[in-house]
Amino acid sequence: MKSVKTIYLAGGSFWGTQQYIRNFKGVVSTCIGYANSLVPSPRYREVCQGRTGAAECVRVDYDPAQISLDRLVRLFFLSINPTSVNRQGRDIGPQYRTGIYFTDATDGNTALAVAAALEDSYEAPIAVEIIPLKNFYRAEKSLQNYLERTPGGHCTISQRVMDYARGNSNRYGAAV
User: Fold this and answer.
1) CB 36, CB 101: distance < 8 Å
2) From first to last of its 176 residues, what are the pLDDT tens digits of the chain?
3) Of 2, 47, 125, 151, whose CB has the highest number of CB atoms within 10 Å?
């Protein structure tokens, strides 16, 4: 049986991050939700109104034999503006902050090392929070896989970056 690991990625709107990251070989599954909420079981409307402290986030289950966390984090950085605070594209508010949330300290160290290695690539300081996951609440069923169900729906990730992801592999890891 293969070993699956989990990391939580907040890249602004969770819809774009989910659609982007699910394309890479080694990603086993994704689920959108709310990370590090101050209230239990937040709902989308509450999160969007800034009442919860939660970040829109994607739970990413991946096979480390096929994709390393280092590579996954580097690919994630390609899809975000890591210097922006509480904003990605047109989406503004603390729920759109960027973050990497982990449950294993080794994974946190890996994410911090990648961010440090990329720091000189940007003119401004990296603002991605890299902290332990406090909690994760799965988003409403009606919101899951939104861009798959709604082609052309709201997404802050550029078409060029999405095309890059699609060109490297297809959904859930099968090589193109």
Assistant:
1) yes
2) 469 999 999 999 998 899 999 989 999 999 999 999 999 999 999 999 988 999 999 999 999 999 999 999 999 999 999 999 999 988 999 999 999 999 999 999 999 999 999 999 999 999 999 999 999 999 999 888 866 776 777 777 777 877 777 776 444 433 32
3) 47
Tokens at 108, concatenated: 């946190």
pTM over 0.70: yes
Per-residue HEC secondary structure of the chain comes to CCCCEEEEEEECCHHHHHHHHCCCCCEEEEEEEEECCCCCCCCHHHHHCCCCCCEEEEEEEECCCCCCHHHHHHHHHHCCCCCCCCEECCEECHHHCEEEEECCHHHHHHHHHHHHHHHHHCCCCCCCEEEECCCEEECCHHHCCHHHHCCCCCCCCCHHHHHHHHHHCCHHHCCC
Q: How far apart are CA 22 and CA 19, in angstroms?
A: 6
Neighbours of 71 (CB within 10 A): 16
